[in-house]
Automatic annotation (TrEMBL):
Coiled coil: 358-387
UniProt keywords, alphabetically: Coiled coil, Membrane, TPR repeat, Transmembrane, Transmembrane helix
TPR repeat placement: 97-130
Alphabetized SMART domains for the sequence: TPR
Ranges annotated as spanning the membrane: 391-411
Organism expressing this protein natively: Candidatus Nomurabacteria bacterium RIFCSPHIGHO2_01_FULL_42_16
Keyword Nuclease: no
Domain PPM-type phosphatase: 497-703
Domain of life according to the entry: Bacteria
Keyword Transport among UniProt keywords: no
PANTHER family, per database record: RAPSYN-RELATED
Pfam families the record matches: SpoIIE, TPR_12, TPR_8
Name of the protein in question: PPM-type phosphatase domain-containing protein
């Protein structure tokens, strides 16, 4: 951190020195030009030398601005604008393009994407005209990253592939290898976010190889950080921390505050995933301090989101505060964009209005001039031809009357057209405002649903916990919407492991709300009432769910269908009860189905007790519990084990035959095969895709 402070001070001093030199040089320039002009022909040679010196000075300013862009962006922006001004004065096209590129990068880091895009496009146009393929590829890469930050992956990939194609057609110099490494890294980020981890790893490792080959610490740090993120996503936390720490060390050595902040943020997220929330908060707070110092809005926004998540895991009230800060910063970016667009529209409108007023003034002046000339001609003719004076006066009056009539018609037409344009502009503004309100409301609803998903995910047992209690098992869980009415549940009491596959009334948000009530009822049965018999648990859950909904003025018959198991792995005893759902046991190549009671957990006119089944499991037995989503899915294929008609339900019989066919496979393989099979069922042809009709939940366990 001490090295970073020294680099900041040096950057400010260096920037001041460059500006002082430029000002001093500008004051001396006129005197030198005047002395040379007096010598005649030698001026051309001196001007050429002076031009080359100006271009060299501009390039030096560009090198300094580029170096400061991540350490002291404010100073870098000042230098880049000076560079642009001097390049324009000297007619130095490549200097202008480089200045636009640097300015675009600084505005990008500030999340001012409109200004960033404008400057990048200016640079792109100049490099295309100059035929500078290497720098053209660099700007194409920057545009790809700009669209990536806006989640426009289609445009981002288009620019990345263009940049890759451009750079691969050039000699493999160190500079071109550096540019190619940057492109490979950005392609990795696209595939990383698209969850194509195999392609992401491939591009990242190619980028890392190139960066280390040319000894570029900046790129090595960036790629290492991205590899850390990808390992963290795949729960390889040790490798993730190794890459993030490597990246942080390189960024600290370079004095790159932005890179250091991003690394610390990612380290904090890994610590949080490992449950070390104290270390996570330390890293995230330090990252927030660094990002705030350089005003990196998009990094600050992401850190607020991460701090909210960690404090929520700790049950701290600060979670809401940080989530509010995250939302305000996210919304402020949108508001700033709207204000800029409105200001631009106002400037365009005022400019058009001023041009029309000037045009009217020019026409009036022209008419006055014509009238004066005409009067002079009339006077001359009156003096020369007195007899024709009356005729000329009549002709003049008639001409003026005709002109005024036409002018009045034109004026009325113009006034009417202008009124129509003003009305159209007002209506367009109202439509834009309404569109903004609708988009804002849609985003709020989407954010609320996503937050509801986080809450629902929190009540679901972690798959790692599920696998720990039932090592030889799988869980296939596919939501129809962001949140679901289906849920899986697990609780442990002594040697008995309770688990269930439940299907609540409805799906989406209504189903998720019912699932919260039902999941809580199951927890109460075990923890508060100490019940261990699946049948008694469902009886008590029915009572609790009914009591929860009795507070409503209307009779609510919502509830859940469920298949509930209580297994003792020491004795291989399985207790089971079902509400409308079955249990399928595969033993020695045969499928045995235990059918649940024909009633759901919830309100009934007449409530019957649920039947409890006791099953003594044998070694090699495989049993399955599930909701009705798999069997009711629409689709169809034309050959293989799933022979059937397009547009038909998968059907319960076909599902059970499928379970019997795969029962001898590895449990993880069974889950993957079931997932692949239902996906192929929903997509029987390339141009025919069926939507998922219900939540899908299947749990398999082998003894």
């Amino acid at each position: 951190m001490k090295n970073l402070l020294h680099s900041q001070i040096a950057g400010v001093i260096l920037c001041a020195g460059v500006i002082f030199t430029l000002v001093w040089g500008c004051n001396d320039a006129p005197q030198n030009n005047q002395n040379q002009s007096e010598q005649g022909l030698p001026l051309l040679k001196v001007d050429s030398v002076s031009l080359l010196k100006e271009q060299k000075d501009v390039d030096s300013i560009g090198d300094i601005a580029w170096d400061l862009s991540t350490k002291n962006p404010d100073s870098a922006l000042v230098l880049a604008k000076i560079m642009l001004q001097k390049s324009e004065s000297a007619g130095y096209q490549k200097g202008m393009a480089r200045a636009y590129n640097i300015i675009g990068g600084i505005y990008f880091d500030r999340a001012d994407y409109e200004k960033a895009l404008k400057n990048y496009l200016m640079a792109l146009e100049i490099y295309e005209e100059e035929g500078d393929a290497a720098r053209l590829a660099a700007v194409q890469n920057n545009l790809g990253y700009l669209y990536y930050r806006q989640s426009n992956f289609a445009m981002s990939l288009e620019f990345y592939w263009k940049a890759k194609k451009t750079i691969e057609g050039l000699p493999r110099t160190d500079e071109n290898k550096r540019r190619l490494a940057g492109i490979q890294n950005n392609l990795g980020m696209i595939f990383d976010d698209s969850n194509d981890d195999e392609k992401a790893f491939s591009h990242y490792f190619e980028a890392l190889k190139l960066a280390e080959e040319i000894g570029n610490k900046q790129q090595t740090a960036g790629v290492s950080n991205n590899l850390g993120r990808l390992h963290s996503k795949n729960e390889s936390y040790s490798q993730a921390l190794e890459y993030h720490k490597k990246s942080f060390g390189l960024y600290e050595e370079l004095g790159d505050k932005s890179g250091m902040a991003i690394c610390l943020e990612n380290i904090g997220k890994v610590r949080a995933k490992k449950g070390d929330y104290e270390s996570a908060l330390k890293n995230l707070n330090l990252a927030l301090k660094l990002a705030s110092e350089i005003g990196s809005k998009h990094v600050i926004k992401d850190i607020y989101k991460d701090l909210s998540d960690v404090h929520q895991e700790l049950g701290s009230n600060l979670a809401c505060d940080y989530f509010r800060l995250y939302s305000e910063m996210r919304d402020s970016t949108l508001n700033e964009e709207n204000q800029r667009q409105m200001a631009l529209m106002q400037v365009q409108f005022d400019t058009e209005k001023k041009e029309k007023e000037n045009e009217i003034l020019r026409k009036d002046k022209s008419l006055q001039t014509e009238k004066i000339e005409r009067q002079k001609a009339e006077i001359a003719k009156r003096e020369a031809e007195n007899n024709r004076q009356r005729l000329i006066i009549y002709a003049t009056v008639a001409g003026v009357a005709l002109f005024l009539t036409l002018a009045l018609i034109v004026f009325r037409s113009y006034k009417k057209e202008r009124k129509a344009k003003l009305l159209m502009t007002k209506q367009k503004q109202e439509i834009e405002i309404q569109k903004g309100e609708i988009e804002s409301q849609k985003k709020e609803i989407t954010d609320s649903i996503k937050y509801a998903k986080r809450i629902q995910d929190a009540i679901l047992p972690r798959l790692s916990f599920f696998k720990k209690r039932l090592p030889n098992s799988f869980v296939l869980f596919k939501r129809k919407d962001v949140v679901s009415g289906d849920f899986y549940w697990m609780e442990v009491k002594g040697d008995i492991t309770f688990f269930a596959a439940a299907d609540c009334t409805g799906h989406g948000v209504p189903g998720a709300m019912v699932s919260m009530v039902c999941s809580d009822a199951l927890n109460q049965c075990i923890k508060e009432f100490g019940l261990i018999s699946p049948g008694e648990i469902l009886d008590k859950a029915t009572q609790l769910v009914t009591e929860a909904f009795e507070k409503s003025k209307e009779t609510i018959q919502d509830g859940m269908d469920i298949s509930l198991c209580a297994i003792n792995l020491e004795t291989n005893e399985l207790g089971w009860a079902g509400a409308n759902n079955s249990l399928c046991l595969v033993r020695q190549g045969k499928l045995i189905e235990y059918k649940g009671d024909r009633q759901h957990v919830g309100w009934h006119d007449v409530t019957k007790l649920f039947k409890n089944h006791q099953i003594q499991l044998e070694s090699g037995d495989t049993f399955y519990i599930f909701s009705d989503g798999y069997a009711s899915q629409l689709g169809g294929v034309e050959d293989g084990i799933l022979e059937g008609m397009e547009g038909k339900k998968f059907m319960s019989r076909k599902f059970k035959n499928l379970l019997l066919a795969i029962a001898d496979r590895d449990m993880e393989n069974q889950g993957d095969f079931l997932d692949q099979t239902i996906e192929e069922w929903m997509k029987p042809k390339q141009n025919l895709v069926y939507e998922q009709t219900d939540d899908i939940l299947v749990i398999g366990v082998r003894v």
